[in-house]
Structures are given as C-alpha cells and as structure tokens.
Amino acid sequence: MARKNEYNYFEAFVNLSKFSLQSAEILNNTLRNFSTKYLSDRIKEMHEIEHSADQAKHEMVNRLLKEFLPPIEREDIISLSQKIDDVTDAVEDVLLRIDMFNVQSIRPEILEFTQLIVNCCQALHLALKEFENFKKSTTLHSQIVKVNSLEEEGDKLYTTTIKKLYQNCKDPIELMIWTEILNRLEKCCDACEAVADDIHSVMMKNS
C-alpha cells in the first residue's frame, strides 16, 4: 500500500504533459483566430503555463533529492521531466517568434502544423497516463508509436511547406521569418518524440 504522503512521480509526469498540451492548444487557437490586438494576452497566458510547468518540474527534482528509493532510476526521472518541460518551452517559443517578427497574418499551412502539435501532445499525454503501469499496459506502446508517427508526419509537412514557401515567396524578409517559425514548429514535434523515446527507454531497461 502506498504511503499517504508519498509523491507519485508518474502522476507528476502526467501533470507536466498537461501543461504541454494546454500550451499547444493555446498556440493552435491563437493562430486560428489570429489578431495582433490579443497576442500579448495570449503570450502572457502561455507564459503563466510555462511558469507553472517549471515550478512543477522543480518540485519533482526537490522531491527526488530526498527520495530514498525512486520508482525508476533518478537520471531517468530528471531526463523525462526536463524533456516534457522542453515541449512546453518549444511551443511557447513559436508564439514568441510570431510576436518578435511582428507577424500580421498567418499562412494557412502553419495551421496544419499547429494542429499536428496538438495531436502530438495529446498522444504524449495519453502515453504518460499509461506510463505508471508500463509493465502491464496494453496501450502504452501504441501511443509511443503514434507520437513517433506524428513526428514523421511533421518532418514531411516541414519539407513540403518549406519547398512551397521558397517556390512562391520572393520577399527575403518573409522567407527568413517563416523559415524560422517553421523551424520552431518542427522542434515542437521533435521535442514530443524525445519524450516518447525516453519512455520507451525506461520500458526497455525495466522489462
């Protein structure tokens, strides 16, 4: 039986992934209903989520310092918590770039990417909900595969969108802006895959 005040690292991972998913949904909704008038409000909202995620990660690390026998290896807990937090940071970074480059309107293909990031974060969240029971779960592996498949989809979308951009856009400043934003969008998918890879690594080490 679990001790009454025992810290549950697996629940903490789920909580961290919830921040990532919330950030992805804000990014997607902000760009689908884009208005420079409300952008600063959305950035503030996003930053509050990122700050909460950082606090949750720091609490986990502080608990780990006092933990006698963690459920999985300490370095795996630290790595996984950092990589989940990296997803939230990567998503926030996209919105910051939109603001920094003074973007006035959103290209339609960008919305394909933001929806893909939401899908990645949803799959990651479901995987982490199953992670505590990784030795018995019948769905965890399929969720990891789904994250990997979505990341591959992101790679293809990045390549085709960049190609289309350089075929149709002749303004060098526009090219620079959207290339950078697309790079940041792809990094969101890469960050999700990094978490999935860590989960899979823990499964292999403990099976």
Kindly describe this structure:
With 207 residues, this protein is mainly alpha-helical. The chain has one domain: Methane Monooxygenase Hydroxylase, Chain G, domain 1, CATH 1.20.58.220. The chain contains six helices and no strands. It has helices spanning 9-32, 36-66, 74-100, 108-131, 140-168, 172-205. α1 runs antiparallel to α2 and α5 packs antiparallel against α6 (172-205). It is globular and about 60 Å long. It holds the Pfam family PhoU_div.
Can I get a quick summary?
The protein is an all-alpha fold and 207 residues long. The chain has helices at 9-32, 36-66, 74-100, 108-131, 140-168, 172-205.
List the helices and strands and how they pair.
Layout: H1 9-32, H2 36-66, H3 74-100, H4 108-131, H5 140-168, H6 172-205
Helix pairs in contact: 1-2, 1-3, 1-4, 2-3, 3-6, 4-5, 4-6, 5-6
